[in-house]
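Case 173 in the screening queue. Each case pairs one protein sequence with one candidate compound; here the compound is magnesium ion. For every case the pipeline is the same: read the inputs, emit a complex structure as tokens, and attach any notable structural observations.

Predict complex for case 173.
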Amino acid sequence: MRPKAGFRRPELAIGYGWDSHEFKPGIPLKIGGVQLPHVKGLGGHSDGDVLLHAITDALLGAIAAPDIGTLFSPSDARWKGADSAVFLAEAMRRVKAAGYAIANIDSTLILLQPKISSHAARIRQRISELLGISAYTISVKAKTPEGMGTENAAIAHAIVLLKRAASVARRQK
Ligand code: MG
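Case 173 output:
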């Protein structure tokens, strides 16, 4: 649904995304665009990057765009084994086209293993490169799934805040 003529987007927009993928043996583990050493990887139609999927959906949600599953259908052979950076790039293209820049991103991973703390800096750096924003505006936290029964899955929650891009703000003054 395209906005009607005269619709003015808000100064700030918030977006939320969530995803989960199941661990499968014998495939590489990619989280936040970084390959991590682990005995199992995350299954999925694409590369299974649960964190990039959650951030992609948060960006799309903030501008009320169609979600990741609608834009990149798991039944579409084009996205088989796809690098999830492609999905993130399309979400960022739409965010910019809507006149926004990212203020900050916060995220939480929920998984038993591997421990994320020693990789978090690298993940933040990679996401900052993919989105063209400072790593200081990207938070990547992780928790273990106490009492949730999701030991064989990785879950990611992400929230983003968008602010009107400086060029757009100037034009509208
Ligand atoms: Mg996914």
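Case 173 observations:
- The chain has five helices and seven strands.
- Strands lie at 12-25, 29-31, 34-36, 40-42, 100-110, 138-143, 153-164.
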